[in-house]
Every structure is written in structure tokens, then in C-alpha cells.
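Continuing the batch. This is chain 6 of the set; chains 1 through 5 are on the previous pages. Same settings as before, nothing changed between runs. Recording input and output for traceability.
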Amino acid sequence: MKRINIGIIFGGKSAEHEVSLQSAKNVVAALDKEKYNPILIGIDKSGKWLGSEKAQLLIENRSPNLIQNETITSNETAILPTQEMLGAGKIDVAFPVLHGTFGEDGTVQGLLKLAGIPFVGASVLGSAVGMDKDVMKRLLRDAGLPIANFLVYTGLTGVNFEVVVNELGLPFFVKPCNLGSSVGVFKVHNKQEFETAIKGAFEYDNKIIIEENIMGREVECSVLGNENPIASLPGEVVPQHEFYSYEAKYLDENGALLKIPADLPKETIKKVRELAVETYKVLCCEGMGRVDLFVKSNGEVLVNEINTIPGFTKISMYPKLWEKSGISYTELLDKLIQLAIDRFDKEQKLKTSY
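Output for chain 6:
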């Protein structure tokens, strides 16, 4: 049986570059090599696309905190993917393992769509919506899903500490709208922290979101599927830092405790899973997604956000939750690839002329 060529796209011009390297290594290791032939396609921090040889060097970096502003350069690098990398017959299915901007936000998805290559995960719309916390929360709110209160700013003009406190109370969170992995996220307790947080968040995006602090347990739920998505058992994140920061997620091995599955009443688990699937559908997601929620002490469940390319590192919730729900890591990758092929085949049947 001919093996399917899977283009693993990783790295990226993003603050989440290092996390992507760890995720990609785990995806490659878990693929069924009898069925799939992994082809490495790296993107360095300057945005250059790297073929197999240089991509291998990129992926071999051992730890996220060892990689800073590394750029690999040689005559083999390219600013954009070459025909040799993405040419017809070279890659059967692409698997973007990219986190953050220029990879999870619909940009790479649009490129793959134009190239006529099936790809794992949400398409252009779902990726873009899932990345932008402002648009995401407005869609969830308009669909009647329970979310925390929030404010959005596109510049320093009009950002006022007293106004924010009056609307959201203290403490609150300041975040870039288009980023993940808790990069550029600040928990604010006073005016001095507020000024630092606003400047810090605007370093990563031209639009920031300020969110109400929710006193509740942090719960995550994995979703899988296209038209008929299913939800895993939920898991709970118990941060050992003040909140689930980048350091707690990736640099400190003891930064957070993961309870899989979450110790919740049956009716709450049911509510979490239903809300996760509903969120996934409202945000036009396909393939995969991890929905993050809060469970308050009174049993109320609020949706926080969705991650359309969740982490695939050894400690990442997305594969761990499916493992606990009866789907192994290798089987999960198999299902994700098949979902990509199914969507592509369905799209190919659509008319493109009149």
C-alpha cells in the first residue's frame, strides 16, 4: 500500500514559534509510519520556508526556552513555499502544526486552499474567527452562549483605567486579540500594572481585549469532526502560578496540574461537552479544536475561547483528553487526516463555473 505523504508545517513567524516545534516533533513521532510518510516543512522566525533538510535542523531544537531569535539561513531557504515543497504529487495532505499569527489565523489555510492541497484543521474562516478574540466573543455573545464581559481597544486613545474597573471590576486580564499560549497576557490588580499591561499587549497586536476575571475552575474540552463534531471528556487545569501563563504552560514543568478527566458532576460534564460542540459550530470550525471554559462554584459554565490548532506537545490537553476518551494519539492523527481528505473531496464536487 502506497503511503500518504503528510506535509508537517511548523515553526512560523509567531511568538508561539517555539511551542510549534515541540508540537510538530510529537506529531511526527506519533504518525503511523506504515500509512504515512511525514515530510517536514519548517518556517523560521523571519518567515522563510525551509525544505526537509533545514526543517530537520529547526525541529531538532530541544526545548522552547533554548530557542530565542534563531534564524536559519542558506541557499536552500525560500521566502515563500516553492513548487518543490508544495507541488502536485509531493504532498497529499498538509498538517499545519502552527500556533498563533501567520499560521493559525487563516493565512496558511488560504495558501493551501489556493494550492489545492487538503489540510488538517479549520478552514480559512474558522481559523480567522478562532484567532481573533474580539470577533470570536462577539459571535458567541450574539449566539447566546455564556461568556465573560469584555472591552476591546484598537489604540491607546480612550483606554482609561477607571472606565475599565467600572465595567469589569478588579482584577482583570489584558490580552492581544490575535495571539495564544498566554503570550502578552497580563493580570491587572492596580493602575500601575494596567499601564504596563496595555503597553505590553500592544507590542503583539494592534487590537487588545480586556476581560473580566472569572472566579472559577479552568476546564478544557477537545472537539473533533466536520459536520457532526464530538466532544471529549473535559480536563481541568490547576495553575500553580497566579494564572495559566506561558511560563506555567511550557517552561515550568510544575507550572500547572492537569486533572484528566476533570472531577465534575455528571450534569456539569454534560453541559461542558454540549457548550464545547456548540462553540465549535458557531465559530465555523472543522477538523479539530480545543474549547476552554470556566466552571463557577454555583455550576454555571462560561465559554472562554477556542484554539483551532491546539498544542500537540507531550503535556498538551488536546491529545491527552482524547486518549482518556478512548482515542489514542496515533488514532487521533489518523482521524484528523481523514477529516481533511473528506472535506477536500466534498469541496471538489462544487461547481466553479456557471
